């Protein structure tokens, strides 16, 4: 048994539809299709392969501990890139999204699911083209999109886990935020 999971934020359907129009337009104009194989999402933790039921149980238990958060507003604004291969919609950094990603990373760290070299600096973004984007295509897409305006705001009150099944990423589990004051306190000898 080996399963591949992705921890992410999925925007509301109306925003996903707007993003998919952009992704489909880029795909048709520039013959790049990789981003269409994934849902429109903000990655919170790189995809991980889990090879046992026990490992999966620990993974989901850790994510359950990471969901003590307040609901927050998130802004998606304009276009940017990781040159020379990835174009994305910028996810405006705010304390809450950084805290959410930090909590997930902290809770999953003891499981050692990712190599230390994958200890990436979190740059929240929503990819619209990558992998099959050649350098010359990258320049063309960026020339078209760098001056375009895009802005959407939505409320985040959960995060999702997608599972790779039948050669597609599919929704698997959703974690609703829980009130911070309900988070269990660590046991201490001195309380």
From TrEMBL:
Q: Fetch the Pfam families from UniProt.
A: 2_5_RNA_ligase2 (PF13563)
Key words of the record: Ligase
The record's annotation in Gene3D superfamilies points to: Cyclic phosphodiesterase
Recorded GO terms, molecular function? ligase activity
Q: Which InterPro entries match?
A: 2H_phosphoesterase_YjcG-like, Cyclic_Pdiesterase
Q: Give the protein's recorded name.
A: 2'-5' RNA ligase family protein
